[in-house]
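Researcher: Re-running this chain for the archive, since the previous output was lost when a drive failed. Same request as before.
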Amino acid sequence: MDYESSLDRAMEDVPDIGGDEERLQIPDPETQKDGAFTRVKNVDEIADVLSRDTEHLHRFIQREMGTSGKLENGRGRYNGTFSQKDFDAAIDAYVDEYVLCSECGLPDTRLVREDRTPMLRCDACGAFRPVTKRSTSSQQQQQQDAVEEGQTYTVEITGTGRKGDGVAEKGNYTIFVPGADEGDVVDIYIKNISGNLAFARLD
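Model: Regenerated structure tokens:
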């Protein structure tokens, strides 16, 4: 067998690592209003698809949405009134931080600990990195980076959400901008805020 034929055969055996996170079919959060609380009835199902611990995902959602809650029998209960879109955004943020490989973009990763440091190991490309923690800024910096409803800002779109919305970061806020693409620098109008999540439109 000549070199070219050997190379072609080897390339055929290489797994396809394209497609990004599109093959990660995450169930939509099943939300239910319950008095002063909002329930998500399938937190365990979502965590199972992500191959992550249900309690870990639940704690992240609480942190991201700036609320407290309780996990019982795979169902999350969160203090406050939240929409499915709010939970979609929180889950997008979780996937970006704790699931997708920063090198190849695939979800074939595992959370492991190395000297008490959480690390993300990718089984697809072999990348191994610390989990990116969102640093806590000083109070002055937080005020400078505050996002307010009804205000306009200029932001850079640095990612794409699971639903195709553009995603920007400003201070501790993750901002979702429908119609914006990664790499764009756009003017946005903040429509509403839920915890550390903000929802905007192009201005």
